[in-house]
Sequence to fold (218 residues):
Amino acid sequence: MSDEQTWPAPPASGAGRAQRPQKRSGRRRAEILDAAMTVFGERGYANGSLQDIADRVGMTHAGVLHHFGSKEQLLIALLEYRDDADVAELEGHHAPRGAPLLEHLVDTAEENSKRPGIVQTYTVLLGESVTDKHPARNFFAGRFAGLRDMITSAVADATDRSMDDPEVIGAASAVIATMDGLQTQWLLDKDAVDMRAVVDLTIRALVRELTKPADVIA
Fold:
C-alpha cells in the first residue's frame, strides 16, 4: 500500500475493505483505555473490574478481553497509552534529550495540571505498584530507571558535569521525586500547589547548586 493512501480508501479497493475494521478496532481500543483510565483512577487496579470498564463503553466482559487478552495486558497498555500522551504533540513523538529535557519536564508539569484524570490514574497505580506481585511493578521500575538515566544526562549537560557524578544522579532522583510528590499534593488540594512553578524552581535550584564554583561549594 502506498504511504499516500488516505482514509477512506476507494470503495472498490481491497484497501478500503481491509482498513475499516482495523480503524474501528483502534477506535474501540482507545475507548476501552479511556474507560480503564477512569475506573482504575477511581477504584485502583485491584478493585476496578473488567466488567466496570466494559459497562462504560457498552461492551461485554468478553469484548474487552477480545481487544486486550487479560486485565494485566490492559493495565500495561493503559500505562503505555498514558506515557504516549506526554509526547503526542512533540516532534518525532519523543521527549528531547540533554538539557532541553529539563524545560520539557516543566512543560509536562503544566500539562498535567490540565488532565487530572490521567494524573490520578498514574498516581494510584504507582502507589499500588510497590506491593508484591503487582502487574505494574516491573513497568514502573523500568520507567524510573529510564527516567533517571535521561534526567541524569540532562542535568550533566546543563551543569557540565559527568553523568557518573553522584550529585548529578541524586539531582535526577530529586526531580522525579518532586514531580511525583507534587502530583499527590495537587490531587488532594489543587489550589495549594502550582506544579509548573515548583518543578521549575526545583530544577533551577539544582542546576544552580551544581554549577557553583568549587570554592563556593566548599
Residues 1-21 have pLDDT under 50 and may be disordered.
